[in-house]
Design goal:
Layout (H helix, E strand, L loop, with lengths): L5 E14 L5 E14 L3 E5 L6 H8 L7 E8 L2 E4 L5 H10 L1 E4 L11 H11 L4 H14 L16 H13 L5 E5 L7 H16 L3 E5 L3 H7 L2 E4 H4 L5
Parallel strand pairs: 3-8, 3-9, 6-7, 7-8
Antiparallel strand pairs: 1-2, 1-4, 4-5
Helix pairs in contact: 3-4, 3-5
The chain binds adenosine-5'-triphosphate and magnesium ion.
The site of magnesium ion has 2 residues, from helix 1.
């Protein structure tokens, strides 16, 4: 692999939670994690429940601050360490470089579904008509009926909310895309759409890192697997 195909490089990453209101209990989520993600491939993270997979993705997205280590990414043509970036820089990185699909949609009441989906493009300054058209295309592909597009997803089913979340995560062209169990509440038809969308991102050269409960999706999209136990030291 040539060096510039590395989009994300994690080195000696440690994450500890300190529970201040529970006798200052310390939980070591993971320690000494090393991994690399390359352009055009999907790296799948495996490990049993509670092994720190979601925590790792959230740390890669800058939701959690690592205790130690580095997360090097290519951002605006330069190598940037996310662990040592200011909050303002992290916001910029999330707008332009790293996308993240969490398992559950964080619903903001009163914001229509189509606007939630178009938001990442509007934030980047894309023309509103173009952003809404792209949002429509994705909602159609993910089988969200058009009579729901102007409603807030507050009342949507679990699977509908997950598909809105996916459309929001896939609409912009982020060079790095993090996926935390994106198909957990989907039926087979929509699961296949998500598989297709992931293949399209790979073909565009995106570096994907994902956690997939569903073996069918996992086997279809995975180029490489890493196990939480083999990429770092797990401390109970
Ligand atoms: N915000 C938090 N504060 C304190 N502890 C946390 C927090 N988030 C996660 N943990 C702990 O870190 C450990 C790893 O959790 P995580 O959610 O990353 O696991 P996971 O591998 O994604 O599991 P699953 O497959 O069940 O989703 C767990 O022991 C969990 O209790
Ligand atoms: Mg998880």
């Amino acid at each position: 692999m040539v060096m510039d195909s590395v989009y994300l490089s994690v080195e000696k990453l440690d994450k500890t939670f300190l529970l201040h209101n529970q006798n200052k209990t310390r939980i070591n989520a993971f320690k000494d994690i090393d991994l690399k993600a390359y352009r055009g491939e999907c790296l799948v993270i495996r490990g049993e429940s509670g092994s720190g997979k979601s925590t790792l993705l959230k740390t890669l997205y800058g939701n959690y601050l690592a205790k130690d280590g580095h997360i090097f990414i290519q951002h605006r043509g330069a190598r940037v360490d996310l662990v040592r970036s200011e909050p303002r820089k992290i916001m910029q990185i999330r707008k332009e470089t790293i996308g993240y699909v969490s398992q559950f949609l964080r619903v903001v009441p009163r914001v229509p579904c189509i606007n939630i989906v178009a938001e990442p493009l509007l934030e980047r300054g894309v023309d509103q008509a173009i952003a809404l058209e792209k949002a429509q295309t994705l909602l159609e592909r993910l089988h969200i009926p058009s009579h729901l597009w102007n409603l807030s997803p507050v009342t949507f089913s679990g699977g509908e909310q997950q598909r809105v979340n996916l459309a929001h995560g896939f609409i912009a062209d982020y060079p790095i895309l993090l996926l935390d169990e994106p198909t957990a509440s989907l039926d087979a038809m929509n699961r296949d759409v998500v598989t297709e969308l992931i293949h399209e991102k790979k073909a565009q050269g995106v570096a994907l890192i994902g956690i997939f409960h569903d073996a069918h999706v996992r086997e279809s999209v995975a180029d490489r697997y890493v196990d939480m136990h083999s990429i770092g030291t797990l401390t109970p």
